[in-house]
Amino acid sequence: MSRPAARSNPASPGSPAPLSTGRAVTRPPAAALWLCLGLPRLPLEVRGGEDDAAPRVIVQRAGRVVQASLAAAESGVSPGLPLNAALALCPELAALARDEAAERAALERLAAWAGAFTPCVSLVPPAALLLEVRGSLRLFGGLSSLRQRLRAALALTGHAGRDAVAPTPLAALWLARAGDDEAVTELAALAGRVGRLRPAVTGWPQDTLAMLRSLGVESLADCLRLPRDGFARRVGRAALADLDRALGRRPDPRVPFQAPPSYRGAVELAAETTDTARLERAAGGLFAELEGFLRARQRAVNRLMVRLVHLRRPPTGVMLGLVAPGLEAAHFAALFAERLERLSLPAPVVGIELAAGPGEPLDPALAGLFGDEPGGLAGLRLVERLRARLGRESVHGLEVRDEHRPEQAWRVAEPGGEGYAAAPAVLPAALPEAGWQARQARPTWLLEAPRPLHSRDGRPWLDGALALERGPERLESGWWDGHGIARDYWVARTAAGARLWIYRELAASGQAGPAPRWFLHGVFG
Amino acid sequence: MSESLHALLDDPRVWRAGRRAHHWPTLSSGHAELDGWLPGGGWPAARLTEVAVERWGSGELALFLPLLARLSAGERASSGAWITWIAPPFLPYAPALAAAGVNLARMLLLRTRDDTETLWAAEQSLRSGSCRAVLAWVGRVDGSGLRRLQLATEAGRAPLILFRPPASLDSPSPAALRLRLEAAGDGPRLRLLKHPGGAVRVLPVDFLHGR
């Protein structure tokens, strides 16, 4: 909850009696600290942003420019200009209608995303969020570290932001609007810092601002120097109340934003495209939002649905499945890129939607902060990426089995799997005294299936006669399960010096069969 | 730069000013004779090493097993630090690896359909930062492919041991180390084809089977 930092200011005895919130509790709460995240480019961002560097403007219903892309601004197009005038400056200008519903949706998604930094986020429509961060400072290692992480994480969502910090929400908002990012952490310093701001940052109505100009007011400090009752009468009580809230003389409770239980995001592309890099960039912003959403709720998901929206055609759905529930945007993005590479798009894409279920509670081992790489996650992620391209069965681990038949003394296992506890200890010193692995030569390579060798005069032959170096080691086993073997194994050496593991099949006892056959079974690589 | 100049500069006998004897960290091979012979006293720790094997069965894995044992030791199953094998010519035989002290829980075996997939998988593995070492067997790689792999080893801070056909050693390579494992009747030997310091050198490697 918000903790309005209401303090009476002894220097202004005429101020309305503050509601003292701190008096009734035995332990006064630590003073609140508000971070305001302003999103000055939201109108343009929800209509495709600056991705292709084309001159475009967002236009309000009245036909006035609300926001200009960088390219448009370079041609002299600026907010407030009528569209006709803007077109005169920049004939190739594309005008897009402002989409306030999309801005609101994006703001709410970012509020849910910001929950990764503090449980207390509130909306300041149309384009700002307020985060009460006092309680998060320790977790993030201090204010500047928290701000750095917030900025880095915001950049991944594709939104431009401006943040400011102050002990009251309104002061933080005004500082953010002014682009003043030097943090104010003490209430005592607030009046001086707020005083430097121009009255326009308050968002007061135009006639109020005009009235202030007529009074010769240039800054909020000038406002504060005016007599309170005169200010209330001539400028308005609402403006006076705002000043009191901004300076902490009056409580300013904020309603915390309640995020929906599951994430649903959408982004429009600046122009229809089949360019995978552009699609990945656009989807990457949504994945970053989703990561914050999941971190805020300490949840992870193992299925995501990406929809690539086309004009006049049903969307192309891309279902992303994870081996283990995850929450990292980079991971989602990598899986998506992998899928996209092998996807043939039926038509250019004009927008991307992302939906995820509520997911499941996060495994604490994976619950790092933004930007951390918890142990194990990178490894799992790699297995997933490899499997997405090579196929599940082409990526596996190895396991030893306690079994005498060489072809059954090992088996394929899940990578890093759990079946290892039952396997013999891996260090030779720990092998059981009677264990054959420790004492007998075993080749580092095994053939998928034994390969028959030629023989001359009963001697095995491969590029010349094979010299038998070591052996025989008799392996007889498995007669009980129908896959029995009876073999004499030798370490043999080719004329070129390569060492092989070969065996001679033993004739069933008592039978005088044909000459014994030789097989190549392994290689001492 | 022309191909022939590349070839010239890749010849270890060409001395280049400003080039130190070796300028990368190394990892002990676990074989004293080998460490004494390898430039820098071991395998490059986060670089590309190319090995051309004339005949499988010359100790091509034994060269690296002590290193793999060390790199895979002490890793909990959940730590996700892999030793990745990509497209090996035969099955790495688990009992022999275990007997050499290699922690099987860290082995990741990949089958690929072609060299393109092998190179892709090697780069992904290295760049993921979750591999302690990568071993890959590949047929054709061009110079830019090798450079990508070399960069990936540096990014992922892990060694890549790339096994290539002997004929491939004729073309230039950005590898830190290029070796040929030669078959010979009196025992295999390692030939150092490229190293920053000096002349081509040869080491008999019968010690690999000396146990």
Categorize the overall geometry of chain B. Answer: globular
Biggest beta sheet attributes of chain A? 6 strands, antiparallel
Q: Specify Rg of chain A, calculated over alpha carbons.
A: 35 Å
- What is the typical, i.e. mean, pLDDT of chain A? 84
For this structure, the quaternary state is heterodimer
| Number of helical stretches of at least 4 residues of chain A | 15
In what range is the share of β-strand residues of chain A? 25-35%
Order of the strands making up the biggest sheet of chain B: 6-4-7-8-3-9-10-11
Number of strands of chain B: 11
List the helices and strands of chain B in order: HEHEEHEEHEHEHEEEE
What separation lies between the terminal Cα atoms of chain B? 48 Å
Strand content of chain B: 15-25%
> How much helix is in the residues of chain B?
25-40%
Strands of the biggest beta sheet of chain A: in what spatial order? 16-15-20-19-18-17
Shape of chain A: elongated
Low-confidence stretches of chain B: 8-20
Note the main sheet of chain B: 8 strands, mixed
Rounded Rg of chain B: 16 Å
Largest interface: A-B, 59 and 58 residues
* Structural class category of chain B: alpha/beta
Textual characterization of the structure:
The complex is a heterodimer of chains A (525) and B (211). In chain A, β18 and β19 form a beta hairpin. Chain A is an alpha+beta fold and 525 residues long. The two termini of chain A are 66 Å apart. In chain A, 29% of the residues lie in helices and 26% in strands. Chain A has helices at 42-45, 70-74, 83-89, 100-114, 143-157, 169-178, 187-195, 206-214, 220-225, 228-234, 237-246, 276-297, 329-341, 377-390, 436-439, and strands at residues 34-38, 56-59, 65-68, 94-97, 121-124, 128-132, 162-166, 264-273, 299-310, 313-326, 349-356, 360-361, 395-400, 410-413, 445-456, 459-461, 467-477, 485-493, 499-505, 518-523. Chain B has 211 residues and is α/β, with parallel strands linked by helices. Chain B is built from six helices and eleven strands. Chain B has helices at 3-10, 32-37, 65-72, 94-99, 115-127, 143-156; strands at residues 26-27, 43-44, 48-53, 82-86, 91-92, 107-110, 131-137, 160-164, 177-182, 189-194, 201-204. The longest helix of chain B has 14 residues, at 143-156. At the A-B interface, α14, β13, β14 and β15 of A face β5, α4, β6 and α5 of B. β15 of chain A pairs antiparallel with β5 of chain B.
